[in-house]
C-alpha cells in the first residue's frame, strides 16, 4: 500500500514531506556529547554503518542499520532498529537481527508480503540480507509477524553463493507490470538482477556493469522508478555504492539513468562523465524506503554519513557515525541527459536566533553576520549574479581560532564547493581532498544554497538539490561564529534566512533516581537498555551520590557479544568509592567464572573477598542489590541473599557502575539512603 497520507507542501520556500508530529521532552545530557549531531540520526552507543531494511508500514518509518553494539570499531554485524513518524525524530528499538554461528548479518532490504506470496502469512514483514561467514556470502531471509519487533531467521540460504566474491546487499521490490519480485545484488563491479514469484526461489535474469572498474567494488544497489519534473515521463535509476573512487576520495554513491523492462536495465545514454549522488566525502550506502512513494512517484532515501577511509577513527564517543538527512528523489531533464534532484525532508523545531533579510549588497570588507553564533540549523540564501561582480562568495561556518568551514561558489568556474581543510584538528585521510567541488550553472543568473549545519556535519543543497555536498567536520566547541563573504568584488544577496533548530533528541531512557554520572574508565552511554558500559579491561562510572548506610540496586545484564553462548565478562555495582575508583567495593556478577563476587579495590589492587558460585549466563537480566551498613555488606541476587560480609576497609563513599571485559547494561538504578542504623 502506498502512503496515501504523504503530501507535498511548500514551507519557507522548500519542499518537504509532512507527517504527524510527535512530542519530545529534552534531556540536558542525553545525546549531548562533543560532536554529537542534533538533527541527524546516530545510535545511542556503538558502531553504525549502512542503512538497511528501510520500510514504511502502518504509519511508521522503520530504519534498520548495520550495527556493532559492543565497541566503536566495525565488528560482527547486527541489524539495529529505530522507528519514526516523521523521518526526523527517531525512537530506538531493540536489536532486530544478531550474528550467530551461521555468520554475520550484512546489508539488505525489507518488504511487506501483502498477498502472502512467500507462504509466511499475509502482510508478513520479510528481511532479505547477506549472510557472511568467513568471507563466503549467501542470501537469506528473516520474517516478522509483529511489525519488526521480533524476527525469525530462515537459516537455509535462499540463494547460495555461485562462486562470486563480494556478492551481497539484496535490494528487493515489487514489479507491478509483470506481477513479480525483483532483487538487485551487487557483485564486484556489476549489478545482478533476479526475479521470483514466491520470494524463495530466485532466477537470474541479467547483469549490468560499468566499463570503469578501476577503483572500488559495488555495494548496496537499488533500482527505482522516478518522475521527471515538469513532464509525465518516468525513468529508472540504478544507484550503487562504490568502495573507492568517488570525486572527494574514498567511498561514494554513483547512479545510472535508464529503462527497466522487467529483465534488463538499459542505460539511456552512456556518458563520458560519471554521475554521483553526492560530491562530498561523507555519503554512502544510500537506499530507498520500500512501501513508500510520494504523490508523483518520488522516492525517499537516506545514506550513511561517513567514509570508509576514516570512519573508524573519527573523534566521537560513545558512538561512531551518523546518517544523512533523508531526501525525496526526482529527476530533472538537463539538455539530453537527466540529473537527480534531492529535496531534504525534515520536521524540525525552530530555536531563537532567526535572521532574515532581503536585497543586500555584500562588500569584500564587510561581514553582515558579525557577532552572530551558529552551530545547528539551516541557511537558505539566493544570490544574484547579474548584479554582482565578485569572483567568489559564500559562508564561513564554525569559525574560531584557526578554524572554519567554507561553503562557496566560484563565479568564473561555476564551482560549488565545501572547503573543510581548516574545519578541525582531525586528519581525515591523505586520499581525501580538503576541498570538495562540483560544477553548477546558475539558474536565471541566480545561485541558491540550502545549508544544514549540525554539530559535526554540513549538508549543502545547491540550486534546489541539483548538486549536493555532504561532509563531516569536527570543530572545537568554541568555534561557533559565522561570516558571509564576497571576494574580488561585491555580491548581491536577494534573500537570506538563518534558522537555528532545537535538538531532535528527547529524554534519556535510563530509569534511575541518580542524575549525575562521571565516566572514569571505559565507554558509557544511556540507551534503550539503560546505562551501558563497555570495556576490554576495567570500566567504571561514578555518580555524585555518596553514603555510608544505604540500599543500592539495579537490573543488570551482561551482554554476550560472542553470540554462541560462549563465556562473557563481569558487571556490577560500585559502592564506598573514592573519586577516581581506586578504592572501592564492587558487588559483581562474574558470568565468566559463574559466581557472584564482592570485590575490593585497595589503591587500585583488585581482591575478591567473598564469592558465591552461581549459574549465571549472558544476555539474561538479573536484579542485583547491595545493603551497606558501614562495615557490614549484604548482596542480594533476585531478592535472595547470596553474600554477607564484614570488612572495615571502607565505610562510606560514592556509588557507581562497573564492567570488566564485557558490555554491561544497568536499568532501574535506585539508591535509598538510610539515616538510622538498625
TrEMBL record:
Regions that span the bilayer: none
UniProt family annotation: Belongs to the glycosyl hydrolase 32 family.
Pfam families: Glyco_hydro_32C, Glyco_hydro_32N
Residue ranges of every copy of the Glycosyl hydrolase family 32 N-terminal domain listed in the record: 40-344
Domain Glycosyl hydrolase family 32 C-terminal residue range list: 369-496
Signal sequence interval, chain numbering: 1-25
Molecular function in Gene Ontology: sucrose alpha-glucosidase activity
Name this polypeptide is given: Levanase
Highest taxon listed in the record's lineage: Bacteria
